[in-house]
Task: structure prediction
Amino acid sequence: MRHFSDTRWNPVPTQKLIGFLVGVAAFAVLVFKSEPGFVFVLDYANLVFHEAGHPAVGLFSQHLETYGGTLGQLTFPVVLAVSFWRRREAISFAVSVIWFFENWLNIARYMADARAKVLPLCGGGDHDWARIFGRWNVMNNDTQIAAGVRTVGWLGMGAACAWVVWLWWVARKNPAPVSKVGFAN
Result:
């Protein structure tokens, strides 16, 4: 099994690292300038995956359909991450992981609204996290749970960035010959 620290990842040249870090910095500015937990263009795209997740999961279980929205918006970044991991494309993998964890900020925003119910909902339907927290009998802890989820989101995004920098650093210290497909010999 391949490991994330495996030196057989495609190399991260300095120019690509700089581009990645500039992109991450621009994204961070966008996140901080946006409404807390909602990046306009990205989270509207995530909303499409969220809404598609409800009926997809609902095909298998009506009880679990409520969870389908959150699972739906997390699935696409995971599929991309797995695809890039299999191809050993470090920066693309990291961007997919960042997208996955950015979703956690949006999910935390939705969780924190479970009692207040002030966020506009698509179609005016039920509030997923109000239903879920009600089932779990943790409704009074919605904002605390959301804070934990938000923290994990930020840590995950930071870890993905640190990992790319680490791969770049290791490759600079120990350059290895790379074959045509990008794996070390």
Observations:
- Residues 14-172 form one domain.
- The helical segments are 14-33, 40-58, 65-87, 90-112, 128-136, 142-173.
